[in-house]
Amino acid sequence: YNEYKSYLSSMIRSKGKKNKHGTTCHNNNVNTPCTKSVASVRERRLMKELQDIQNATTFTVDLVNDCLFEWHVKLHTIDKDSQLAAGMKKNNISYILLNMTFPDNFPFSPPFVRVVSPIVEGGYVLDGGALCLELLTPNGWTAAYTIEAVITQVGAALIKGDAKISSDGRKFSLKAAQASYKSLIKTHEKYGWVTPPKSEG
After folding, report:
1. In angstroms, rounded to a whole number, what is the distance separating the alpha carbons of residues 33 and 10?
2. Are 70 and 25 within 8 A, CB to CB?
3. pLDDT in tens, 127-147
4. Active site residues
5. CA distance 72 to 91
6. pTM for the structure as a whole
7. Residue 91 CB burial class (10 angstroms; 0-12, 13-18, ≥19)
8. Neighbours of 126 (CB within 10 A)
């Protein structure tokens, strides 16, 4: 936790620039256009979240390029009776890698979460690795959600949706994930969280 406090101090002193996600990281990827007070809320919240998950046993977290606002989350523990776990064992895969980015107005808006690897199908995973989960949308999100709870829900959704390792040669990408997420928001804003007509995807 002390290393994260040290990192945050140096980050605040440094001048940053926008990253590919539109968030603000320092040293390599962020300077936010939001007010200092809002930025500090995001920083303080993420520092607390990092502290709270230090003893997590089912997943680990790494900052991407030392950026507080972008995380790589490795899901190490998957239900052993699931087809996803069976596929991981067969392909010698030890974890599911997620990418989480936190917008400037986090925790008042949800993080953007996508599966990076392996390529899976089912499990509420959309094209590009985006996730079809109401809690990750503006209408379904509440600032009361902890990141640990979000990670737990993502893992549960993969199992509930019968996710399995894909062998069709596809690759997940940030661009495709963002497009899928925007389409998801648009569809559910129109129809709510029910199955939309096939013409709407």
Report:
1. 19
2. yes
3. 999 999 999 999 999 999 999
4. 132
5. 21
6. 0.80
7. exposed
8. 19
